[in-house]
Amino acid sequence: MDKQFDNLTLATLVIINNELTTACEHEVKALKYKDLWTVCSQLKIRGVKNATKEQMIKKLVFMHQVKTRYDKNSEMP
Question: Structural domain of residue 41, as residue ranges?
């Protein structure tokens, strides 16, 4: 497993206009399939074993959106 993605969290993903741009300071478009798969594996995102790069990116964006919504709801008293 790559050491460059060891400290990866959903907070390190940069999403602009519902589009994933960088993951752990690496351009997502420049990442290879195996690197993107490693990112999903590190974040414990399931269901991407046979997915394309585009499907993995969409799944990462979706999981980030769910996490931010959940965090906002959990902060309410």
Answer: 3-75
Judge contact between 25 and 9, C-beta under 8 A: no
Report d(CA 51, CA 28) in Å as an integer: 16
Separation CA 1–CA 14 (nearest Å): 22
Residues of the chain with pLDDT under 70: 1-2, 72-77
Separation in Å, CA 46 to CA 17, 51, 74: 24, 10, 24
Q: Is 75 exposed, middle or buried (0-12, 13-18, 19+ CB in 10 A)?
A: exposed
The predicted-structure confidence for 53-62, as pLDDT tens digits, reads as follows: 999 999 999 9
Rounded Cα–Cα distance for residues 21 and 62 (Å)? 14
